[in-house]
């Protein structure tokens, strides 16, 4: 494969991971939605990548929905603001679901929140209510369902995800769901890969005394790609793929 071929593949990967290519799916009248699993070890950049896609979505004029299980909501707000303002001075159109404050024994100021991660039925109701509030054809980030597996069985979580994904797809939403690798069973990861329209994989490798991040679009609606690309996070909390 020549240098020109490598450049073409890099361009294709960047387009596949850009909201510019995804919003064409969500804004097409015949779309049925798009659910994306983002899988990788801790520190690979999964959260940052999802935040960048969410920021691009709001900059394009769509509303966002963000469910957080492993960080304070205020921290996530600050990280999104660090990526730059919305054109025209408009506020970020993001609705948050606080799934973290209950761990601290605190009541969240957010409109949507949970108070027990092991109550999957209540969790489903809260997420559905938030999805109704944000409206159809929105961009959804769920970071991360892996946290809920500390309180629920894998079998229960698979049933919850399948039902939830079907509802999100019916609304025509694009959803990105973060999964930690190396902590669940291989059977669970196989269920995830089978349940999502697209799977983005990320990894860390040590070379020359430093950790390097890599990313690939493992699958996209039945198509598969094996090539990995270098994934960089800038000081401005943005991402580059090269």
Strand-helix topology:
Blueprint: H1 3-16, H2 19-26, E1 34-40, H3 46-59, E2 64-68, H4 73-81, E3 94-98, E4 112-113, H5 120-134, E5 139-143, H6 145-148, H7 154-170, E6 174-180, H8 186-195, E7 198-207, E8 210-220, E9 223-224, E10 229-233, E11 239-241
Parallel strand pairs: 1-6, 1-7, 2-3, 2-5, 3-4, 5-6
Antiparallel strand pairs: 7-8, 8-9, 8-10, 10-11
Helix pairs in contact: 5-7, 7-8
Supply the number of structural domains.
1
Mean pLDDT: 83
- The CATH class assignment is Alpha Beta
- Major sheet characteristics: 11 strands, mixed
CATH architecture: 3-Layer(aba) Sandwich
CATH topology: Rossmann fold
Kindly describe this structure.
The protein is α/β, with parallel strands linked by helices and 242 residues long. Helix content is 38%, strand content 26%. The chain has one domain (32-241): 3-Layer(aba) Sandwich (Rossmann fold).
């Amino acid at each position: 494969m020549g240098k020109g071929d490598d450049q073409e593949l890099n361009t294709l990967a960047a387009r596949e991971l850009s909201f510019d290519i995804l919003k064409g799916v969500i804004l097409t009248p015949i779309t049925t939605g798009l659910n994306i699993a983002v899988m990788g070890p801790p520190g690979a950049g999964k959260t940052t990548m999802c935040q960048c896609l969410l920021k691009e979505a709001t900059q394009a004029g769509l509303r966002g929905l963000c469910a957080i299980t492993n960080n304070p909501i205020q921290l996530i707000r600050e990280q999104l603001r660090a990526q730059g303002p919305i054109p025209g001075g408009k506020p970020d159109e993001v609705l948050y679901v606080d799934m973290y404050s209950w761990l601290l024994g605190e009541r969240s100021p957010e409109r949507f929140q949970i108070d027990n991660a092991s109550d999957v039925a209540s969790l489903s109701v809260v997420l559905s209510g938030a999805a109704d509030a944000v409206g159809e054809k929105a961009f959804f980030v769920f970071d991360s369902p892996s946290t809920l597996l500390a309180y629920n069985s894998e079998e229960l979580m698979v049933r919850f995800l399948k039902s939830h994904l079907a509802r999100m797809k019916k609304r025509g939403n694009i959803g990105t769901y973060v999964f930690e690798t190396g902590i669940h069973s291989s059977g669970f990861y196989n269920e995830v890969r089978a349940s999502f329209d697209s799977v983005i994989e990320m990894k860390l490798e040590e070379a020359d005394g430093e950790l390097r991040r890599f990313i690939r679009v493992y699958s996209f609606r039945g198509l598969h790609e094996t090539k990995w690309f270098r994934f960089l996070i800038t000081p401005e909390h943005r991402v580059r793929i090269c």
